[in-house]
Amino acid sequence: IESLFVTQSLKGKKVLITAGPTFEAIDPVRGLTNRSSGKMGYALAHAAACAGAQVTLVSGPTHLDTPFQVTRVDVESAQGMLDACLQYSSQSDIFIAVAAVADWRTANVATHKIKKQDDNDVPMLTFVQNPDILQTIASRNNPPYCVGFAAETEHLIEFGQRKRLKKGIPLLIANNGPAAFGADDNQVVLLDDAGIHELPKQSKISLAHTLVAEIAQRLN
Ligand code: CTP
Ligand code: CA
């Protein structure tokens, strides 16, 4: 079945993809993370490779196998993900940000495990905002064609278009977050300068091939 989808629509193109969650350490045994299985990003990496692209997958911690013919770079934190992306972005034709990046990290990572207090006091954690990887890459000189993903829980189209313009990217793929987390299928809406394009609900694997075709079409 999969071969039905396969064209060489990205032949010779270099594609950089982020996937999975990031993990922001609080101390050596605890951290802050986001809900993401990595399935959508890994499926896209696989589909892009099937379409003839040279794919680099910058991945936060997941339980998934590296897709065939994809170069995987493992990272943990948002800063680590940004550093890796900056290394590859200037040689990339397309950047697809699928990772669920933690928006904040603690201002300081404790060197030792934070112990419970005898007086039952709770620790005071101070957070700082993480860099926006997608916006950073999109605002560079001569950027790759940048694609974002957004999981929203309300006002999908309105919030999505606003987010796309704020990040300065040509294409944003929006979905209903909780419905897609960990699931094998997904329903998305493509938002670009031309407006709204809704895709039917389908498996993440099939959706990945459809999205690769949509991206390839916009690239030309
Ligand atoms: N993204 C990123 N770096 C971040 C945050 C988000 O690269 N620090 C990317 C995601 O990979 C995704 C897109 O930006 O492709 C949208 O992520 P989202 O979390 O929906 O957007 P935010 O700008 O963080 O807005 P908010 O979480 O407040 O809705
Ligand atoms: Ca966010």
Largest sheet: 8 strands, mixed
Kindly provide the radius of gyration, computed on alpha-carbon positions and rounded to a whole number of angstroms. Answer: 18 Å
How many domains, in number, for the residues?
A: 1
Record field, number of beta strands = 14
**Which superfamily, in CATH terms, is the homologous superfamily?**
CoaB-like
- The name of the CATH topology is Rossmann fold
Order of helices and strands: HEEEHEEHEEEHEHEHEEEEH
| Intertermini distance | 26 Å
The percent of residues in helical segments reads: 25-40%
- Widest β-sheet, arrangement of strands: 5-4-1-6-9-10-12-13
User: Per the principal axes of the C-alpha atoms, what is the gross shape?
Assistant: globular
Uncertain residue segments: none
Class computed from helices, strands and strand pairing: alpha/beta
Give the second-level CATH assignment, the architecture.
Answer: 3-Layer(aba) Sandwich
Hetero ligands: cytidine-5'-triphosphate, calcium ion
Highest-level CATH class: Alpha Beta
Mean of the pLDDT scores?
94
Protein name: Coenzyme A biosynthesis bifunctional protein CoaBC
Binding site for CTP: 103, 113, 131-134, 149, 163, 167
Domain DNA/pantothenate metabolism flavoprotein C-terminal: 10-217
Cofactor: FMN; Mg(2+)
